[in-house]
Amino acid sequence: MNEDRVVSGMRPTGRLHLGHYHGAIKNWANLQHKYECFFFVADWHALTTNYHSTELIEQDTYDMLVDWFASGVSPSSATVFVQSKVPEHAELHVLLSMITPLSWLERVPTYKDTIKRLQDRDLNTYGFLGYPVLQAADILMYRGGRVPVGADQVAHVELTREIARTFNFTFGRGHQWESVAQKAVERLPKKLRQQYRSVQRKFVEAGNSEGIERIRAQLLEQHYLNEDERERLLGYLEGVGRVLLPEPEVLLTETATLPGLDGEKMSKSYNNTIYLREEPNKLEQKIRKMQTDPARVRRHDPGDPEKCPTYSLHKIYSKPDTLDWVTQGCTSAGIGCLDCKGPLIDALQIEQKVFRRRAEPYLEDAQLVRHVVQEGSENARTVAKETLEDVKSAIGINFR
Ligand code: TRP
Ligand code: SF4
């Protein structure tokens, strides 16, 4: 179990805007210093809803990666890769698909919602129904990872947990699991052996977990047992097998939706975005035109910052004394909206400079992002191959 691992993916959306940054990527950049992180571009997931227009996937992938790096995600801290460059994800997907009941997939909330929302797409495919199984493979591949996602993805991680549980139950016992476990029990000292059998019987037959903890503690003290025997004895005690694929945890990213220039949610499809690397003049123009409290028609009309999308950005970018100045000036009509936007523009320009500086090496050398992702994908494959070795051995199709 790797509680210190984090895994998350994002579909290739091309250039990122501040909504992506504050909603997810900023958080990733922080996590990479605390955990061993695996971040990937989910290009196969893009195909599940978009197989009829694939011409932009590669460019969108590279553009998005440059913006991840601009945001501070660093290939020297995190393993950054492209899903399709780690084909082991597909292999695990096939294996997990064997044990996933159809009804679980049909009742995933995003399944029906997306079909309703994207009526112009053909979502009547096997690939789209299997979307969450692919996501489960992405996650379980890195065994025990925590998964930073927004609320919309929680159901997928829940399903991943159920798939892991079913998988462990089905294959965690292996061929001779029981007889090998029995042999390990025989080797325990007589007194412990008797206690083990009685506690196990009570638990398996009557669900009585009394004594389990005590036996567990004693097993940990038997130093002559090797790792495999101990794990087996612990699992056998409760009638379960080995935990081949540990269940992941959600790391919920809680963020208020970032308003776009028109006050609606910031989104490429609404054409109301501020990109991560805007031209400075363009950025200034965008903010100058950004929606404010509609009550401020004239300069002397007072306003209410809570009704103003520009103020939502101020809350992210400005210090408390600036926020006080805004509130005071806005509600008394002491400042105009352009005055108010001045310090916000400055703060955004400073941040944009940092984004641009981090992106610079990738813009100077277009091959760099390709190299970085190649190396990240190879590193991810090393881990993925280990998982698959275990998984295939447990199923009994490793052919060695
Ligand atoms: N389904 C996710 C989304 O649309 C992307 C994704 C694919 C993902 N695989 C993942 C997220 C694994 C977290 C972990 O945003
Ligand atoms: Fe919004 Fe500032 Fe104008 Fe008030 S003064 S409406 S907070 S932009």
What does this structure look like?
The protein is mainly alpha-helical and 400 residues long. 57% of the residues lie in helices and 6% in strands. The protein is built from 18 helices and five strands. It has a three-stranded parallel beta sheet. Helix 1 links the parallel strand 1 (5-10) and strand 2. The longest helix has 30 residues, at 366-395. It is elongated. It starts with a strand and ends in a 5-residue tail after the last helix. The model has no long low-confidence stretch (mean pLDDT 93). Iron/sulfur cluster binds next to helix 15, helix 16 and helix 17.
Basic shape: elongated
Quick one: biggest sheet? 3 strands, parallel
Low-confidence stretches: none
* Helix proportion: 55-70%
**Overall average residue pLDDT:** 93
Strand/helix succession? EHEHHEHHHHHEHHHHHEHHHHH
Number of helices: 18
Lateral arrangement of strands in the main beta sheet: 1-2-3
In this entry the ligands are: tryptophan, iron/sulfur cluster
Radius of gyration: 27 Å
- Based on DSSP secondary structure assignment, what is the total number of beta strands? 5
Structural class: mainly alpha
Distance from first to last alpha carbon: 26 Å
Quote the beta fraction. Answer: 5-15%
